[in-house]
Fold this sequence. Notes:
Number of domains: 3
Oligomer: single chain
Number of helices: 12
Largest sheet: 9 strands, mixed
Amino acid sequence: MRIIVCVKVIKGEINPFDGSALECAPRLSDDVTVVTMGPESAKEALLPLTRLGAKAVLLSDPVFAGSDTLATSYVLSEAIKMIGYDLVICGRQSIDGDTAQVGPMISARLGIPVITCAMNLDLKDNAAHAVTRDGNETATLPAVVTLEKGFVLRFPSIFSKVGKVEVLNNSHLGCDASRCGLSGSPTRVLKTFENQKGRRNCKFITRNELLSLIQELREKTYAREEKCVMQKLKSVWAVGHDVAEIAADIADEVITIPKLQPDEIAQRAAAARPEVILWSADLWGRKNAPIVAAMLETGLCADCTELEADEDELIMYRPAGGGNVYAKIRCITRPQMATCRTKEQNSDIYVACGKGVSEYADKVFDFAKSIGAACAASRGLVDIGKAPYEMQVGLTGKTVSPRIYIAVGISGAVHHTCAIEGADTVIAINPDKNARIFDYADYGLLENF
């Protein structure tokens, strides 16, 4: 069983999601090859992996520099075909890009099935069996699987020996240079700027004031902000009804496409040639939109929080660098594609529990139920198994915009605060007066729950 593990080296370190894949692979086979794209300096990050018994291959050539996810998936897939494979494993996403696109795009280029967001993985009867964020999935081999951070990469034995890193350039791979690097990358960053969205002026209160404040806020009448009139595109495809409202904000005509198999959507798009296709940035959209993008050889911008029309061009805004900055992006190919964060509104009030109070999670959720609030969780709490993924609010979870959002034991990392910007009032409960969450809260309570 030959397993290829695709990794990304970020500032000299292996991407944590890819580290999970690297730990999983040797449990399934003793024939593991690690492949990464990068400069010659990336060899230093690969050498320790050879001490774990893996072969290591570095794809390095100036023609590969500046590749977006579409171009990266092309180069990686050509290398994978040359090396040979039965199973390809990737981390779900990189911590610097957060797009989760490369794995599904590789599957499309290889013409094999993909399982995304796997929490655990096993091989049996020539098939991959995974427990995912969505439930149990099976795919006949060969296949691609993207892994969550469910495995912790081990340290090599002190008796292990360092192997060699094989370096391949484009003379070995024979990639079409026009499909690599910047020239093969249809998504272009026009501008980046510091993310200041969602910042608020926090007023601190006491525990005795909390319940009366919640009641007061519930009775308050809120004036919803009117959407400004803006330039619109002529026509936009919306894959699924959940993203149709977003499409209506930027287009005169919205054509809603059912959530079909990706090859069916690609065939329809190839025939009709729409200018823009929008997808929801949910688990289904994050899996299938990259597959269609690879089939159509077009650009895809992930997790967009804002869209604009500039004549016939779609301008997309998304958090980058873990949410610390916002990027303004355009796509130079057609159709222009984006996955969009849709707001989920199950309740007027949410109580979210963070990893910081994981030992009191049941108490926090009981409090939520006592005031008639919906329960939510940070990614940290979900990752340690204290809450289901369906409750996760954040960059890799859902976006909410309730009247009241109460964050308990949440530090306020950008990947969480970017998903609660639409809340009318945010109340933060945290004993750490320096917690970032207070910069994004209207009211603060400096106490343990």
